[in-house]
Every structure is written in structure tokens, then in C-alpha cells.
């Protein structure tokens, strides 16, 4: 017996007009169709219809996470500051963190993501290699004080995320946990009916080595990705772009240095307008299309040693491998008030074009990570952002790349031992010695997926949900008076009894025209109308997506819909 929801008793108020502040399709439609309501910037209420869609997405996610053996838990969102201080993210996250104090003055945060806390829980709960691998997940409310919370539920300051974490003792084990998640994500997004691509990404604030994103192409998306029409190469431009970050006022602007010659410390220094002995920060050097050095290593391995072949000692001094030994803070930071403490991301060494590029960043409180112009900062604040352009050669096969906008719906990371090192997460190994654990972390934007689905599947009439996600299987419309209402309720009861989820528009005093418009707007995949031929017991079944219609008796309609 599935639920029969009467519209006459449903708290839903549809709107004819787009909300004044809405810029994106999902924002307009989800508000107009009565799924969500905005409380404050980036803070949303899920109304009954919206809650159903959100729950349907959570159910799919939960089923697929359970299927790979991940265990569901629920961690607090209100977290003590100390673990995030230990990982340096209390600092690194900057303004993105919601921070608060309790009555005794102790500091807390509202969790933006939970690597620290999961690491501590596993440290507490797991003692031996025999208890690994372990995969844990939660579907939980996350908090990020986003600079520009717009686009409806696509970018909330409070939002729902499924986050999971894997714990293994070997690199092969981590690769396997990562593979399991990747496959589970493919199943999840296929079931959600989302068109998506898997692209190379940067690990950013998470740290770690490998990471991929699941991107749902849509004009409202806030990410840009490149896609090769000839081979399987696809990457977020964050991962193929040289992000130019601000330079300090005293040093003046730094431009792209295109030189046929191998740069020397002198040419670099001259170009940067600094003495040859200066400590250069966030430096990236490419020679003959190959990155030979970065001021701090990026997410990928780069041959720092090669720098010595090209550059004089002053720079080498800054960037030799030893300089980074044990200096995790340098490797994973970005440029903060103290200078080079926080550079997180430089570039993907696979980027092919160009000769030599240099970026410099000495400005306080700036960072080079996830820098998307207009989203993360005002363009004027920064120098310039060199992006990959449409038609640039694919780093793998040389074919001209395609450029598209997309919504980041999922992100998977091989974290490695970063958090395990921070918190001393060891288990007793096979030979009685402690072994350091290696981790992965994996996120899905559950509430964002609602926005992505709305963006991808809506049409001129309104929302149009895939079956598994829709708030009901069929929207029954009583288009007339008592006779039509009686037939609509009768068929609804029978459908409900047969396990079909029904939304029935039994509202009195609402014209058929308004009911039809609302049904299209709300976007349930099938619309069943009790109208003109109700006296004969004949209904009209309409497919919301294709618009195809057919006349059916009650029995035929039930047979068709079950
Ligand atoms: P973005 O680049 O859009 O800011 P992110 O890379 O910061 O996202 P992650 O830290 O990778 O996000 O978090 C995992 C997932 O959580 C993302 O892939 C996305 O689907 C979702 N997500 C992140 N931030 C938000 C937000 N502000 N509102 C809704 N969903 C979000
Ligand atoms: Mg991102
Ligand atoms: Mg973000
Ligand atoms: Mg991400």
C-alpha cells in the first residue's frame, strides 16, 4: 500500500511567477512548484514535495553505499575546534567555516566535511589490521559559509552531503576502496537519471594524491571542464588551469612569461620584479611544455630536482626536495598572512601547451585553490586567470578540447596518510608492529543533486523528474466536479493499494486549467486525468516528458501504472 497524497491536504503553494531573486532554472522551478523555500542566503526549508525528492535521493545513495559494504553512521555537525586545528584546516578554511563559542568560551565549528572526526573515530574503534578495510558513511547536514550562495539549493550554506571514508592498510587496499566508490557513484548517478562525466580534479583542501569529480553538464553549473572528443580525457579546468593568484603590491603584477629560452633565475627575477635572491612563493615553472618546478609541489608529483638544471641556486634553494621534507604545511597550504604557508594547488603537470609560465602569490589571505573567477572572488581582486580555451590541444591525444559548464555532484579522493599522520592512526599489523592507515574520502551533494536534476530535466512547462526520484509515480487530476473527483479518488485508492505512489489533485474550486498547469510544473512522470469521459469510467494518461496521451479505463490505467 503506497501513499495516496491528496493535494487538498498537501501544504503546497505554487507560484505563477519566478521569484525575483532567482537566477537559475532550478531555483525558479523548485520555488514555484513549492518544493523549497528560502529562509536566508543559502539556507533552505524543504517543503513536503521537496522532502520526498530529497529522501528518494538519499535512499538511492544509501542502497548503493550499503551494497559496497559501507556502514552508515551519524556524526555531529557541531564539532570541537581542536581536531581541525591539528589538521590546520581551522586556519586553511578561513571564512568558509562557521565558528561559534559555547557558554564557557570554548570554540566550535559547524562541520564542512568530516575527515578529522572520522579519523579519530576509527582510531578509537579499530585496533588491528584484521578489522580493516572499513568504509563508513553518513548523510548529514554540512555547513560552509560560501562567499556567493546563489543558484538555489545548488550552493547552500547549509546543505545535505553524503560523505564516506575508507580505511585501509595498503595502497592497493585504498585503490580498491576507491574503485568500489567510483562504481557505486556510477550506479547512483545512473539511477538518479543524471547525465554526468567523470573528470580529473584537484584535491584542493582535502590533500592527498588522486581525485576525480562527477560533473553534471548544465549551463547553471559553476564548474568548467574540458572534454576530449577523440579520447577519454576529461578534466575540471581547475585541474588543467594555471591559476594566477595575486602578487603582493610591492612586487607588482606577474604576467605569463612566454620565452623560447630556458628561464634562468635572472630572467625569472627580472620578470617578477624582485631581486634574484628573493624568496619566491607559489612559483611554477614550465619549460618546453613540461612543468619542471613549483614553489610548492602541487597535487601531482613533479620533478623538483630538474629545476637545478635550469635555474640558479637562489630558486633551487627554495624548492629542492629537502625543503619540503617534513614540511606538510608548505606542501598543502595556501598563501596566508605569514606568506607561504597555505598554497594548496599549483597545476596538473599534464598540461601541454605553452613554454614557460610563472605565477607568483605573496598576498595575504589569498589562495590558489578552487579559484573560479566570479564564483570564489571578484575578478578585480586578482591578476588574471589563465584558463584552458576551447580548441586547446588535448594533453593525451592532441585533439581540440571541448569546454563545458557543469555542476559538481560528487568528488572522490585518495587521501593517503595525511590525516592518519596527523592523528597517529595506526593499527596493529600482521607482524605485531603498528601500521599506518591510508584513507579515502568521497562526497555526494545530496541536496545539490536535486538542483542538478531540476536543471537537466526541466522543460518549458516545469520540472520533470525521473521515476525513481519523483515525489510520486502518478499525478491524478480531478478535472471537473463531483463525478470527476469521485473517479479520481477511486482510481487513486486502487493505484495506492497496488503499490503506486499517488498524488491526487482533488482540490475543490480550482479550475482544470490551473490543475493541469500545476501538474506540469510539479513534474510527476505520469499524469492521469479524470475529465470529460469520467461518466464512462474513462481516464486520460499523459506522459509528462513526451506529452503522449492515451485513453484508458480504470483497470487499464492500473495495469499500465503498476
Ligand atoms: P564546489 O567546488 O562546488 O564548491 P567543493 O569541491 O567545495 O564544491 P567538496 O568539498 O568536494 O565540494 O564536497 C563534496 C560534494 O558536496 C561536492 O561534490 C558537491 O556535490 C557538494 N557540495 C559542496 N559544497 C556544496 C554547497 N555549498 N551546497 C551544496 N552542495 C555542496
Ligand atoms: Mg569543487
Ligand atoms: Mg567549495
Ligand atoms: Mg570538490
UniProtKB/TrEMBL annotation:
<keyword id="KW-0030">Aminoacyl-tRNA synthetase</keyword>
<dbReference type="InterPro" id="IPR050062">
    <property type="entry name" value="Pro-tRNA_synthetase"/>
</dbReference>
<dbReference type="Pfam" id="PF04073">
    <property type="entry name" value="tRNA_edit"/>
</dbReference>
<feature type="domain" description="Aminoacyl-transfer RNA synthetases class-II family profile">
    <location>
        <begin position="52"/>
        <end position="466"/>
    </location>
</feature>
<dbReference type="InterPro" id="IPR033730">
    <property type="entry name" value="ProRS_core_prok"/>
</dbReference>
<comment type="function">
    <text>Catalyzes the attachment of proline to tRNA(Pro) in a two-step reaction: proline is first activated by ATP to form Pro-AMP and then transferred to the acceptor end of tRNA(Pro). As ProRS can inadvertently accommodate and process non-cognate amino acids such as alanine and cysteine, to avoid such errors it has two additional distinct editing activities against alanine. One activity is designated as 'pretransfer' editing and involves the tRNA(Pro)-independent hydrolysis of activated Ala-AMP.</text>
</comment>
<keyword id="KW-0963">Cytoplasm</keyword>
<comment type="subunit">
    <text>Homodimer.</text>
</comment>
<dbReference type="GO" id="GO:0002161">
    <property type="term" value="F:aminoacyl-tRNA deacylase activity"/>
</dbReference>
<dbReference type="InterPro" id="IPR004500">
    <property type="entry name" value="Pro-tRNA-synth_IIa_bac-type"/>
</dbReference>
<comment type="similarity">
    <text>Belongs to the class-II aminoacyl-tRNA synthetase family. ProS type 1 subfamily.</text>
</comment>
<keyword id="KW-0547">Nucleotide-binding</keyword>
<dbReference type="GO" id="GO:0006433">
    <property type="term" value="P:prolyl-tRNA aminoacylation"/>
</dbReference>
<dbReference type="InterPro" id="IPR007214">
    <property type="entry name" value="YbaK/aa-tRNA-synth-assoc-dom"/>
</dbReference>
<dbReference type="InterPro" id="IPR002314">
    <property type="entry name" value="aa-tRNA-synt_IIb"/>
</dbReference>
<protein>
    <recommendedName>
        <fullName>Proline--tRNA ligase</fullName>
        <ecNumber>6.1.1.15</ecNumber>
    </recommendedName>
</protein>
<keyword id="KW-0436">Ligase</keyword>
<dbReference type="InterPro" id="IPR006195">
    <property type="entry name" value="aa-tRNA-synth_II"/>
</dbReference>
<dbReference type="Pfam" id="PF00587">
    <property type="entry name" value="tRNA-synt_2b"/>
</dbReference>
<dbReference type="GO" id="GO:0005829">
    <property type="term" value="C:cytosol"/>
</dbReference>
<dbReference type="GO" id="GO:0005524">
    <property type="term" value="F:ATP binding"/>
</dbReference>
<dbReference type="InterPro" id="IPR036754">
    <property type="entry name" value="YbaK/aa-tRNA-synt-asso_dom_sf"/>
</dbReference>
<dbReference type="InterPro" id="IPR023717">
    <property type="entry name" value="Pro-tRNA-Synthase_IIa_type1"/>
</dbReference>
<dbReference type="InterPro" id="IPR045864">
    <property type="entry name" value="aa-tRNA-synth_II/BPL/LPL"/>
</dbReference>
<dbReference type="InterPro" id="IPR004154">
    <property type="entry name" value="Anticodon-bd"/>
</dbReference>
<keyword id="KW-0648">Protein biosynthesis</keyword>
<dbReference type="Pfam" id="PF03129">
    <property type="entry name" value="HGTP_anticodon"/>
</dbReference>
<keyword id="KW-0067">ATP-binding</keyword>
<dbReference type="InterPro" id="IPR002316">
    <property type="entry name" value="Pro-tRNA-ligase_IIa"/>
</dbReference>
<dbReference type="GO" id="GO:0004827">
    <property type="term" value="F:proline-tRNA ligase activity"/>
</dbReference>
<dbReference type="InterPro" id="IPR044140">
    <property type="entry name" value="ProRS_anticodon_short"/>
</dbReference>
<dbReference type="InterPro" id="IPR036621">
    <property type="entry name" value="Anticodon-bd_dom_sf"/>
</dbReference>
Amino acid at each position: 500500500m503506497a501513499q495516496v497524497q491528496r493535494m487538498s491536504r498537501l501544504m503546497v503553494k505554487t507560484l505563477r511567477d519566478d521569484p525575483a531573486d532567482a537566477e537559475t532554472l532550478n531555483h525558479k522551478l523548485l520555488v514555484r512548484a513549492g518544493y523549497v523555500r528560502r529562509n536566508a542566503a543559502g539556507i533552505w526549508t524543504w517543503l513536503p514535495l521537496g522532502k520526498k525528492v530529497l529522501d528518494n535521493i538519499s535512499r538511492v545513495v544509501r542502497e548503493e553505499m550499503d551494497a559496497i559494504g559501507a556502514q552508515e553512521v551519524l556524526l555531529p555537525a557541531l564539532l570541537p575546534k581542536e581536531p581541525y586545528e591539528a589538521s590546520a584546516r581551522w586556519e586553511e578554511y578561513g571564512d568558509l567555516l562557521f565558528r561559534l563559542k559555547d557558554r564557557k568560551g570554548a570554540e566550535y565549528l559547524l562541520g564542512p566535511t568530516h575527515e578529522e572526526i572520522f579519523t579519530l573515530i576509527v582510531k578509537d574503534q579499530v585496533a588491528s589490521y584484521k578489522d580493516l578495510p572499513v568504509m563508513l558513511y553518513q548523510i548529514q547536514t554540512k555547513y560552509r559559509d560560501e562567499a556567493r550562495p546563489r543558484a538555489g539549493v545548488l550552493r547552500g550554506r547549509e546543505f545535505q552531503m553524503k560523505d564516506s571514508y575508507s580505511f585501509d592498510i595498503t595502497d592497493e587496499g585504498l585503490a580498491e576502496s576507491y574503485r568500489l566508490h567510483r562504481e557505486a557513484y556510477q550506479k547512483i548517478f545512473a539511477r538518479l537519471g543524471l547525465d554526468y562525466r567523470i573528470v580529473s580534479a584537484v584535491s584542493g583542501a582535502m590533500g592527498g594524491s588522486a581525485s576525480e569529480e562527477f560533473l553534471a553538464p548544465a549551463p547553471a553549473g559553476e564548474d568548467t571542464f574540458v572534454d576530449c572528443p577523440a579520447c577519454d580525457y576529461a578534466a575540471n579546468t581547475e585541474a588543467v588551469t594555471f591559476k594566477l593568484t595575486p602578487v603582493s603590491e610591492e612586487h607588482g603584477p606577474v604576467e605569463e612569461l612566454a620565452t623560447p629560452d630556458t628561464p634562468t633565475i635572472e630572467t625569472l627575477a627580472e620578470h617578477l620584479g624582485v631581486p634574484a635572491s628573493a624568496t619566491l612563493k607559489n612559483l611554477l615553472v614550465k619549460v618546453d611544455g613540461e612543468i619542471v618546478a613549483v614553489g610548492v609541489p602541487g597535487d601531482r608529483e613533479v620533478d623538483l630536482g630538474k629545476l637545478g638544471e635550469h635555474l640558479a641556486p637562489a630558486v633551487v634553494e627554495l624548492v629542492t626536495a629537502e625543503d619540503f621534507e617534513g614540511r606538510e604545511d608548505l606542501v598543502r597550504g595556501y598563501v596566508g598572512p605569514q606568506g607561504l604557508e597555505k598554497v594548496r594547488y599549483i597545476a596538473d603537470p599534464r598540461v601541454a601547451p605553452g613554454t614557460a609560465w610563472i605565477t607568483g602569490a605573496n598576498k595575504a589571505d589569498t589562495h590558489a585553490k578552487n579559484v573560479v573567477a566570479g564564483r570564489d572572488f571578484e575578478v578585480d581582486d586578482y591578476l588574471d586567470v589563465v584558463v584552458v580555451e576551447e580548441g586547446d590541444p588535448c594533453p593525451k591525444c592532441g585533439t581540440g578540447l571541448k569546454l563545458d559548464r557543469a555542476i559538481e555532484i560528487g568528488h572522490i579522493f585518495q587521501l593517503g596518510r595525511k590525516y592518519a599522520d596527523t592523528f597517529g592512526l595506526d593499527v596493529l599489523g600482521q607482524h605485531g608492529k603498528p601500521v599506518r592507515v591510508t584513507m579515502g574520502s568521497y562526497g555526494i551533494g545530496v541536496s545539490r543533486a536535486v538542483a542538478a536534476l531540476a536543471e537537466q530535466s526541466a522543460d518549458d512547462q516545469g520540472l520533470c523528474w525521473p521515476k525513481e526520484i519523483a515525489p510520486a509515480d502518478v499525478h491524478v487530476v480531478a478535472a471537473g466536479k463531483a463525478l470527476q473527483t469521485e473517479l479520481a479518488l477511486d482510481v487513486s485508492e486502487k493505484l495506492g493499494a497496488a503499490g503506486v505512489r499517488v498524488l491526487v489533485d482533488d482540490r475543490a474550486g480550482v479550475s482544470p486549467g490551473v490543475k493541469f498547469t500545476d501538474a506540469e510544473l510539479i513534474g510527476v512522470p505520469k499524469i492521469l486525468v479524470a475529465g470529460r469521459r469520467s461518466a464512462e469510467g474513462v481516464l486520460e494518461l499523459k506522459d509528462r516528458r513526451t506529452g503522449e496521451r492515451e485513453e484508458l479505463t480504470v483497470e487499464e490505467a492500473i495495469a499500465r501504472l503498476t
